[in-house]
Amino acid sequence: MLDLKLLRDIRGMKGQMTAIALVMACGLTLMIMSRGLLLSLETTKNSYYTESRFADLFCDLKRAPLFLEPALAMIDGVAQVETSVRGAIILDIPGMKEPADGFVHSLPEGRPRRLNRIHLRSGRLPEAGNRDEILVSDSFAKAHGFRPGDAIDATVYGVRRSFRICGVAISPEYVYEIRPGGMMPDPERFGVFWMSERELSRALGLEGAFNSVAFRLAPGADAEMVKADIDRLLEPYGGLSAYDRERHVSAKLMEDEVAQLRVFSVAFPVVFLSIAAFMVSAALTRLVKLQREQIAQMKAFGYSGFSVASHYVKFAFVPVVAATLLSGTLGMWAAHAFIGLYQRFFNFPALIFRPDWSALLVALLASGLVSFLGVLGAVRQAASLPPAEAMRPEAPADYSPSFLEKAGLHRLVQPSFRIALRNLERKPWQAFFTALGLALAAAIPVLPGAMADGVDYLVDFQWNMAMRQDAVVTFIEPSGGEALLSLSRFPGVLYAEPFRAVPVRLFNGHRERTAAITGMPAAPRLNRLLDSQERVVPVPGSGLLLSEKLAEVLDLSPGDEIRMEVREGRRPVLATFLSGTITDFTGVGAYMEIEGLRRLLGEGTTASGAYLQVDSLYWDEFWRRVKETPRIGSVTTTAGARESFSKTTEEMMGVSQMLYLVFSLIVSFGVIYNGARIALSERSRSLATLRVLGFTRREVTTILLSELGLLTLLSIGPGLLLGTWMAKSILESVDTETMRFPLILGARTYVVAVLTVFVSTVFSFVVVGRRIAGLDLLAVLKSAE
Amino acid sequence: MAMNAEYTPLFRARGITKIYHPGTETEVRALDGVDLDLYEGELAVLLGASGSGKSTLLNILGGLDVPTDGTLSYRDEELTGAGERELTLFRRNVAGFVFQFYNLIPSLTARENVALITEIAPDPMEPEEALGLVGLSDRMDHFPSQLSGGQQQRVAIARAIAKRPEVLLCDEPTGALDVHTGITVLEAIERVNRELGTLAVIITHNAAIAAMADRVLSLSAGRILSIHSNEKRAPVNTLSW
Ligand SMILES: Nc1ncnc2c1ncn2[C@@H]1O[C@H](COP(=O)(O)OP(=O)(O)OP(=O)(O)O)[C@@H](O)[C@H]1O
Ligand SMILES: [Mg+2]
């Protein structure tokens, strides 16, 4: 019997039930999606790291003899050591004007790697004794359509030769395959390669030596102590500093992604479910009030308070079940789509989507709990209503003069509008939660808008305002003045600006960071350093300029002393100071005047490379010369970097942007529609009376909706503030030494946010307005309230 | 004022029929061919058993409902066949309503309930004046929940007359009130009828009230059974039931 009533009532409230279920589904979809992704990524990552024996510590160095390996293995806390050689490679790809570049690593012969094992996708490993075989990374191979057996021209350590691709592989070191200092994968222009150890050592002039080493820690080892030992041992061999997975580019970016998913899987559901809880509460409270008499009858017939309560609880569970089913489907589907995206950015042997079934249960429980909390007040009221009292109409609300009233505010507005004001005043909590829901709806689209504008600004700042160069060329070894001179004579080169980059460690007390210091002219014409106001920061004659983020992590303010250890050449150590900071968004860097740096290194006119301004008419000739020049280790073009960054971010952010927009539409529509339906139900009697008295449909609709309209207007301002705050904290949470996003809030963002709320307001008003048209005018005259 | 046949009627109803659910098993003939003229300034009382069609007739007169058959005109205007928009305007500008259940807006004070209507009327009186006419000058800033039933009903009358309607339609205005309060309410209606020359139609179950009318119309099973003209309207304070 009761269940039959349940079905009928639900049919009567299907609009509201749908709205509630949709808002819940937004939160749950995000949760199910991010938990599914989290599970998939984490399990895949963990099993891949374990299977491939991904190292715990890494260190690069200039050159150390192989016989040092046992000494490294003896370090207390080290379980395993793998030495290797690595070098730069530059490739001439048919059909591509500019060269691609990358890293080439060695593979031991006759045995698999002990650490950082590679995983073959196709083909086979290079055969011992076969000089020309090379293994290509999967994403690079995919970007160019390479297959085992294809030939490829490349320059390794100044020697150009032809290789044959023997296989395609991936490595745990390059799950996220990215050029050092780059921001996004650029598989067309950057790749990773492997050759047999003997062959690569010969090519790099490193026979009997290694320049890269990886370690596995023994259980319970103290990583910091081990790192210190490694640094001490490798110091004489040009060792840079040992680092752990925390500083490993690929591993770190993976972790960042996982951390972000974890935040998403909690924060968003909480927000959406709270809104849904309020909606359930408002809708059910209203229903219980409407059904006072029915409740009384049910109780008079002998239904217990408990069965009455459980009847209404069941009511609240209908949207819960609907939302769980819907979000289960949507969440799994969205996760599937995202996995597809991840498969392109993360190189795993198999990144398969693993649905997190427990997320469904969590979704069911969370939304169930939320609805239960939402419905609790209403149900308690229903259960505790004594039959006799329930038969009587509800006591009228208290309409004694309120504070605003006394302040004389109401005098200023027409009586028809006073209805709205009074209702708001008399139900401040209901008004508050509705406004909160609306504010959130206005806030949600601010985030994707800010991100899009942030990316645009970043691109403009980095590649238009700061970098004026068309290309950056690095030499395989620091080279003297004649190298620069020859570069400046390349066809089309209008101007060549040298730079000298060396690895350093910077210390402030116990704080320490490894970075590259770049020496550049005092007033660079091409690669300029800017502050946050986009003003050029001159390179000082003394002291260092640091990225703001680097100064922040080292806790340095201008004027503070810095200890700098150069990790190259004669390894000078000096005490200098922070002369200022500059603004940049990717990686961190340190800068000083190039002459000063050369003096410090005891060098003459050396340069690590140069920034070039190239006449666009001469690109073809320029590239031809670059490919013929063995000394060049890598070339990147500003246009290429900008384009690949924009393309990738667009791909990655497009989906989320759509999601945010759809969700905020759903939330604002749901909140307003629910509010309007409740208002309509509460005031249908008054509204019908007004219609009887000669108010037109439009006037009556205006009276009903002016209350919600007022709330909408009131909530937009705070909503935009809230959105700004949310965007700010989300951007702050992804503000790392690898990558930062500027907070740019353009008018467009706010316009979109306001429009989102307005569109859904208008839409739900139209739907409710339709119902006003259908009000039964005569019915209200036949019955008492 | 006695009925005068030389007057042209305000309302002219011919063959008004209202059938609910026509053609079904639950078909109800609420009105069955009502012919009726109502004149400017008269006070008519509509008597009849429950279910005889009184409310249906009043609602049709007030433009709240439309007849299934027959014609109804107001002055030169044809009300049958008028659209939703015309009927709304008719209710807004011409007719004033008083209902058994008052139907006040709970969130507005007495004054505001009246002002709500004067806001949209073409030539209204001040809300204070209307409330003065029903003797509620000292309760203007009370909310409905702070007023007695009779006072609420008088606010409803003030609301109905504030726009100076040509017609005042009252459906059992004393239905929920005791004798004493009922009389105060009827006095208010009578006063408006007398002082403003408003045509007033009062539905009641209470034959005693008929004495205050110019004409008494009796309805039975959807037909006008009889029309009786009183020689003289009895003063309201002499009524009792
Ligand atoms: N909406 C409706 N649907 C079906 N029948 C209706 C409807 N409204 C009224 N009726 C029927 O029309 C007839 C006349 O109803 P009406 O309300 O006019 O009576 P009444 O004379 O005002 O009675 P009362 O004195 O009880 O108010 C009744 O038989 C009633 O059942
Ligand atoms: Mg009736």
Question: How would you describe this structure to a colleague?
Answer:
The complex is a heterodimer of chains A (785) and B (241). By secondary structure, chain A is of the alpha+beta class. Chain A has three domains: 58-251, no CATH class; 427-461 and 639-785, no CATH class; 462-638, no CATH class. Chain A has 23 helices and 20 strands. Chain A has a six-stranded mixed β-barrel. In chain A, strands 13-14-18-15-17-16 form a six-stranded mixed barrel. Chain A has a four-stranded antiparallel beta sheet with strand order 2-10-1-11. In chain A, helix 14 (428-443) runs antiparallel to helix 20, helix 15 (446-466) runs antiparallel to helix 20 and helix 20 (638-692) runs antiparallel to helix 21. Chain A starts with a helix and ends with a helix. Chain B has one domain (40-65, 87-238): Rossmann fold (3-Layer(aba) Sandwich). Chain B has a six-stranded mixed beta sheet, with helices on both faces. Chain B has a four-stranded antiparallel beta sheet with strand order 2-1-4-5, with helices on one face. In chain B, helix 3 packs across helix 4 (127-133), helix 3 (110-118) runs parallel beside helix 5 (149-161) and helix 4 crosses helix 5. The relative contact order of chain B is 0.18. The model of chain B is unreliable at 1-5 (pLDDT under 50). The chains are: A alpha+beta (785), B alpha/beta (241). At the A-B interface, helix 13, helix 20 and helix 23 of A face helix 2 and helix 3 of B. The structure holds adenosine-5'-triphosphate and magnesium ion.
